Structure formats: C-alpha cells, structure tokens
Amino acid sequence: MSSAPEFDPKNMQFRQLGNSGLRVSILSFGGWLTLGGTQDAKATEALLKLAFEHGVNTFDTAEVYSGGKCEIAMGQAIKNLDYERSDLVIITKIFFGTGSKSPNGKGLSRKHIVEGLDASLKRLQMDYVDVVKAHRPDVSTPMHEIVRAFNHVINTGKAHYWGTSEWSSFQIQEAHDIADKLGLIPPVSDQCQYNMFHRERPEKEYAPLYEKYGYGTTIWSPLASGVLTGKYNDGVPDDSRLANHKDMAHRLTSEEGKANIEKVRKLTEIASSLDTTPTILALAWCASKKHVSTVILGATKPEQLEENLKALDLLEKLTPEVDAKIEEVLANKPEAESTWGR
C-alpha cells in the first residue's frame, strides 16, 4: 500500500484564520463555478494536485455550488489523491441549500445547519470540515439559534470552527455578543468580496471587527469577475464568462465600467514595471492586506492556476511606493469612520 503524498509547503506563506489557531495558506483554491460543473473528474484532480504541490492547504466549497456537485467532485478528488486529511483545511458553507423546494432546505435554522452540514459531509466523503460558514445572514432565524446551532456542530465533531459570509458588521458583532453571553463559540472569519474595485466592507465596515475580535477574512472575487485581468479592456470575448452574463457585461459599458477599464490599463503599466501581469498584481495586492487571511483562487486550467500562484512571489515587491502608485490609479480608498463625538 502506497503512503499518502507528503505535504510540502514550498515557499507558501500561512496566516492564522482570524484569531483562531488554524493556519491557512494565504492563497487557497475554490470550486465555485468550476468543480462539479465545467470540470470533469480528471481535470478536478489535476487542479487540486497542482495547488497542493504548490503549498496550498486550504480548499473552499459550498452546498450550493453546482447544486452540491462541487462538494462531490472535491471530495472524490481528495480521496483519489489520497491526501492526509490533517494536511488539509476544508471550508464549506451552508445557507442556500442544493435546490430543494423543502421550506427547511435552506436558511440558517438549527435544522438546516445540522442537516445541511451532514449532507455536505456525505458529499465530501469526510467526517468533518475545518470551517463551516453561514453563506449569508438569515434575518428570519433568531441569532441565538444560529450561534447555538454552529456551536452544536462543532461540539459534535462535524466542524472545528465556524464563520460568516457577507454578513454586516452589526450581525457579526451580535453573534459575538450572544456567544460571549452564553459561553458559546463565536465565528472567526467572514468570506467577503474584496478586490481593487470593491473595498468598502472589508476595509471600512469590518475595520472595528479586526481590532475588537481579530476577525479574519477569506476573499472571493479578487479579480472582480476577471475585469482586473485586463481581458475585457477591448470588449467582452465570446468565449469569456461574462459573455453568458449579460447584466455583468452591461456594467462594463456603464460610466463606472469604462472608468474601471481605464484604471486596469494604468494598472497594467504598473504591473509591467514589476515584470508581472495585472492578474498577479491584483491577487498580490489582496494578499498583502493584513486583514486578509486567505485569497481564494479559481481556475479552469492548470496553467491558469499556476500563473495565479505566482502572486506569492510578487508580495515582496509591493513596497509602500508601489502601493502609493496603485492607490493613485484607483482613487477609491474608503475613508476611515469618523470618531468625532465618541
């Protein structure tokens, strides 16, 4: 019987997930829009193997991705690759369900959190996930029920930590207050959209959470749906993802969209001066922020993933001088909250 492949972090960097003791690779791999959908089993294995061999230990999925097929594909690939479970950090998310019409088939009721996670574990062929996240807030369920339910799945060994995704700072603080009052386990990080064009929530709204709770972030859409790669500078290619999303493609022709394309052109010049691409610059910019725990990469081809992983090598070149040039181009840094009168 052959032994499991040994995890070699290479030159990967690791950060704590929020104020927890869990260490995640600053670049992680996610299956949204690809695994269980456009990728077959062989391609899925190739992507996960490449990520693992480059020191990525963190893999992200959700019950809703491809109606549960993403979890199936990821779990089967990990099983086929024979990785040690202890080498991996697996994140899944609960809220949207898998398409069931059952009134309890989605949301954050105790019933769906417990049963939804059980179903995710079955699809993943795993006994536990490292982190389970509330994929969105559920205003129809009392916060104390949500906190108690996540505390329960941790205490029963189905997850090690829990977190949030696109929750408001008020909702996260409410969860922490309830956890503190009842002696329960609080959430450790939020999975939020963050990129050069989408900064308000991660940089401004969440700022008090970083200071008060050491809250972490796992970042999705670091390339702004591909806009920051520069591939849409001359329009939307017929074979691109945006070609099938007319509303998103329409945004590129809006005044804001045109302004952003012009910014990408200027960012490309900065990238060229660093002997890199706008894609790698955008990913490294995200990963360089101290409030970011990990940046989730998505890819359909191994060569695309290998290219994106080069963002790790660019981090040391993102000096204060380079960052100042980037900020001059972006001109969208959120203003700090006023402390007047406090």
Automatic annotation (TrEMBL):
Q: Which Pfam families match?
A: Aldo_ket_red (PF00248)
Gene3D superfamilies recorded: NADP-dependent oxidoreductase domain
Top-rank lineage group of the source organism: Eukaryota
Keywords in UniProt for this one? NADP, Oxidoreductase
Record flagged with keyword Transmembrane helix: no
| Spans traversing the lipid bilayer | none
State the coiled-coil residue ranges: none
Which residue intervals define the domain NADP-dependent oxidoreductase in the entry?
27-329
GO MF: oxidoreductase activity
- The reply to whether NADP figures as a keyword in the UniProt entry is yes
Q: Which family does it belong to?
A: Belongs to the shaker potassium channel beta subunit family.
Protein name per the record: NADP-dependent oxidoreductase domain-containing protein
- Originating organism: Tilletia caries (wheat bunt fungus)
